[in-house]
Amino acid sequence: MAQGQEKVIITCAVTGSVHTPTMSPWLALTPEQIATQAIEAAEAGAAILHLHARDPLDGRPTADPRVFDQFVPRIKASTDAVINITTGGSTRMTLEERLAYPLQEKPEMCSLNMGSMNFSVHPLARKYSQWQHDWEKPYVEGMEDLIFRNTFRDIKHILQVLGKECGTRFEFECYDLGHLYSLAHFVDEGLIEGPLFIQGVLGILGGLGADPENLVTLKSTADRLFGRGGYRFSVLGAGRHQMPLLTMGAVLGGNVRVGLEDSLYLGKGQLARNCAEQVRKIRRILDELSLEVATPEEARAMLGLKGRAAAAS
């Protein structure tokens, strides 16, 4: 298989918007912590850094460009890794809020969720009797009655203002088979050109479950829609499913994504102390599989990115 012979791109999603401070003392919250963990992850072998922002005062997700500006320039000055800014933000943010920093930064990459969906971790609220901050419990419980919105018009808008006008390419996050068909629709409409970078997301309540069979189905469906070798795929396994699914994805010829956004753990019952620990673990697994890890420059070439010099900052 041609894809299986390529080097493997490691993406690290540093903090996200799902987990809250109570869930792990190692979750990056401040700009200093986000920058430090991102830089360490890059040094450990991550070629792409997927970034969200947090309010420095209490750790809640934020889309404020002023907060992003406190850590993104430092990361860019300290590493050659590809900067990938979220356009997902959180379920409580408007599209305008989610796009505020990407449109300012014009990064090489952004994430793009390929559909509206139920997206929730509300059962996690039952695990904690005490919370560090007043916002956390209602935030987690409230996901039960929220929808992550990305309509066809929203996606079209993002593809136009970021993709066509800024030259940003996308990590297409596909949580279900229907998201692949939505992606194929936009390809047919001429709004997306290859190379495609498809991030298969498994294990989120509201999306595909973390069954190995679902990963095979996701990949075989992408093969039919885009042609085997006509795209590059990556695997994201939520929570305890992270390392097993990533290993399986790598065997299937895919790339991998780790980071405390996706899982707070390094192993069973063992919280990861930083994102770099997860990067080093998946790198050891890749080494044992005789798979080579891509450098940032190799990842740029594989994904057809515009290069870091073309970003705004």
Give a verbal description of the structure.
There is one protein chain. With 313 residues, the chain is α/β, with parallel strands linked by helices. The chain has a single domain, classed as TIM Barrel, CATH 3.20.20.70. Helices cover 37% and strands 17% of the residues. It contains 11 helices and 14 strands. The strands form 4 sheets. Strands 1-2-5-6-9-10-11-12 form an 8-stranded parallel beta barrel, surrounded by 8 helices. Strands 3-4 form a two-stranded antiparallel ribbon. Strand 9, helix 7 and strand 10 form a beta-alpha-beta unit. It is globular, with a radius of gyration of 18 Å. The N and C termini lie far apart (39 Å).
Give the topology:
Layout lengths: L9 E4 L17 H14 L3 E4 L1 E2 L6 E2 L2 H4 L3 H7 L3 E4 L9 H11 L3 E5 L3 E2 L17 H7 L4 E2 L3 H15 L2 E6 L2 H12 L7 E7 L9 H15 L4 E7 L4 H10 L3 E4 L6 E3 L2 E2 L3 H14 L7 H8 L10
Parallel strand pairs: 1-2, 1-12, 2-5, 5-6, 6-9, 9-10, 10-11, 11-12
Antiparallel strand pairs: 3-4, 7-8, 13-14
Keywords: Metal-binding, Transferase, Zinc
Cofactor: Zn(2+)
Protein name: 3-keto-5-aminohexanoate cleavage protein
